[in-house]
Amino acid sequence: MSGVGGVGGMNGGSGTAGEGGEGSGPTGRALAAVMARVAVTAAEVGPRFPLYADPADGRWTTTGRGSWTGGFWAGLLWLRARYTGAGHDRRAAAACTARLAPWTAADTATRGLILWYGTAAAGDDAAAAALRARAAGACLSAWDPELGILPWGDALGGPRLLARVDAVPGTVPLLAAAGPGGAAAAAAHLHRHLDLCLDGTGDPWFRPALIHDAATGGWRPCEDPPPGWSRGRAWLLLAVADAMLQPELSAGEFTRLSEAATLLTTRGGVLTGPPVPPADTACPDGPPDTSAAAITAVALLKLARTPGPRAEQYALRAAEVLDHLTRNHLTPEGGPRPPGMLLDGCYDAAKGLAVRHELVWGDFFLALALTALHGLVDITRS
Fold first, then answer.
1. Alpha carbon distance 41, 171 (integer Å)
2. CA 148 to CA 139: how far, in whole Å?
């Protein structure tokens, strides 16, 4: 599939707000297409939340409350508001963010995904900041010091006492903003997940989900998601990168965080493997997952801002991944489908659910990376 053009380079031109980025080179054209797609999606879904779109015609499957992905839609609207500078786009983003408020009281560690990414790009919006503060306080209240984590929770179904890697991104910066004790809880939450999910020598070396055994007090790995879940590795890498950028979280632990990033990028093939990994690395001939690649690109952009000998390598790989996504997986102008769709995302390979689709979180992370490259957001704070 021919895309709208590649990224070119990490330092290629400063972007400016406003409709159309054609004058800013390949990144500008890609960003313009993605932002135009956000406007089309907003008109289609109305007050509902997009989840995944059919690769044939771009029609969205939506949810009423947003589920664990609602924050990515609000975040996309905030990124569009940053891009256009238009008051009506800012109002649309604010209205969508307000609809996330019920999730502050939900028993789920995915509040990090919902309420950090749904508010972090809102800038000086007071209502978004207040919602983020309430969410941070709620997460701190739910943090279990005995287990050392904010448990997965039961709001989305299933057992409550899980440690899952997708409970870490967003949750780390959200907890860190929770006042006294927040940073300590955020660090403990992250490091406990590193203890449980990473084993540099064992097989499998990566365990994306574990369940607490009340009888023994220990943890045992879950079968789903599988150890080869590429999005799980991307989620954990993103959380590690966020922690490395916050002195209150990395103080005294920077070496360990750096080693975790090295393990995830080298053992996981992030720096040398295909730019878009298979959804399950144990099934290399299975569907790819562009959303995992987009999450990884953002993590690498963040890691490139941290001190260390690998910073340049992280930056170059982020550029390579973004170039590949925009050239090969982003729908072009003039085709049978709406332009600006990031295709080939895989929601759930094992269940055969939305395995070659546009995914709202894939769109968000691609948009976040591109807006960061154009100076519209600070990647270290989003």
1. 27
2. 13
- Rounded to whole angstroms, the Cα distance separating 354 from 237 reads 24
**Whole-number average pLDDT of the chain:** 92
* pTM tops 0.90: yes
Query: What residues does 269 pair with on adjacent strands?
Result: none
Angle 160-222-366 from CA coordinates, rounded to 5°: 85
User: pLDDT tens digits for 305-346?
Assistant: 999 899 999 999 999 999 999 999 999 998 899 999 999 999
Token pair in block for residue 206:
């990566």
pLDDT of residue 19: 52
Instruction: For 62-91, write each residue's pLDDT tens digit.
Output: 999 999 999 999 999 999 999 999 999 999
pLDDT of 13 above 60:
no
